[in-house]
Amino acid sequence: LLTVPLQLVEFYLILAAVAAVSGGIFWRIFIGSLVMLVPGYMGEAGYLNATVGFVIGMLGWAFILYEIHAGEASKVSAASASAATQSSFTMMKWVVTV
User: Fold this and answer.
1) Is 76 inside any structural domain?
2) Which GO terms describe its cellular component (predicted)?
3) What domain range is 62 assigned to?
4) Which of 10, 28, 39, 93 qualifies as a cystine partner to 53, CB 3.0-4.6 A?
């Protein structure tokens, strides 16, 4: 429950190391990770129908994918002059996607 939000916040930290990044990126990714995890847990624990928890969790994952592939985080990464930053962001993006 802790490692996924931390991994996803790394997207923000990588970008913040080389560019001025809005806090909105941090919050969108963090909240997206919670939307992905909490309903999944609730479905597995029996607090919520498992299918409903799965669908809500997938919506959170889809939102995260949008943010890192086409959203503001992706645009900031593409505008970054650093090849190392772009490479790190791209590698992490594919880890989350696959």
Assistant:
1) yes
2) membrane
3) 15-97
4) 39
40 falls within a domain: yes
b or e along 63-88 (b: 16 or more beta carbons within 10 Å of the residue's beta carbon)? bbeebbeebbbbebbeebeeeebbeb
pTM for this prediction: 0.87
**Cα separation of 65 and 45, whole Å?**
26
How many structural domains comprise the chain? 1
- Residues 32-76 have pLDDT tens digits of 999 999 999 999 999 999 999 999 999 999 999 999 999 999 999
DSSP string, 1-47: --HHHHHHHHHHHHHHTTS---HHHHHHHHHHHHHHHHHHHHHHHTS
